[in-house]
Amino acid sequence: MDAVTKVGDSFYFGGPSTGVVYLYPSGTNDDGSAITAYWKSKDFIGGDPFVEKDFQNYSMIARTQTGSNIDLDISYNASPSYTRNNISLTSSLGLPFIRYNARFPTGKLGSFVNFKFGNDDLSSPFEIYSVKYDYMPRAWRVMQ
């Protein structure tokens, strides 16, 4: 048993090698329900936190997980406004990594950005290795 945690009155455990989470003491299943998980990055500020940015594109490298997918939420300036993508982690070429490149929606401006990767499907493990983003700095102006 690895990575034991208590949520409310229930204990959950799992293993980093399996990517599966179980409810203790029921054993090796989660009763058919998906146990959602996510990882959220810090707020990235780029080269200057006081300059507004026009976000251009982003890239990600993840481990191939046949049959799995992840939801990617991108937040700007810690607001509830975000961009959402659902990314398949299945490689049709049998490659060990998934490379995902995309553009931010036009007009996405902000001083900082963060990325949240998660799953909401049954038996849908994920591993993210790297995230990168590009932006064009905008002219300095008074911001609130």
Distance between the termini: 49 Å
Shape: globular
Helical proportion, percent range? under 10%
**What's the SSE pattern?**
EEEEEEEEEEE
- Spatial sequence of strands, sheet with the most strands: 4-10-6-7
> Regarding quaternary structure, how should these chains be classified?
single chain
Number of strands: 11
Roughly what fraction of the amino acids lie in strands? over 45%
The number of distinct helices, counting runs of at least 4 residues, comes to 0
Largest sheet: 4 strands, antiparallel
Mean pLDDT metric: 83
Q: Calculate Rg over CA atoms.
A: 18 Å
Which secondary-structure class do the elements indicate? Answer: mainly beta
Enumerate the spans where pLDDT stays under 50 for 5 or more consecutive residues.
none
What does this structure look like?
By secondary structure, the protein is mainly β. The protein contains no helices and 11 strands. It has a 4-stranded antiparallel β-sheet with strand order 4-10-6-7, with no helix packed on it. Strands 5, 8, 9 and 11 form a 4-stranded antiparallel β-sheet that branches. Strands 1-2-3 form a 3-stranded antiparallel β-sheet, with no helix packed on it.
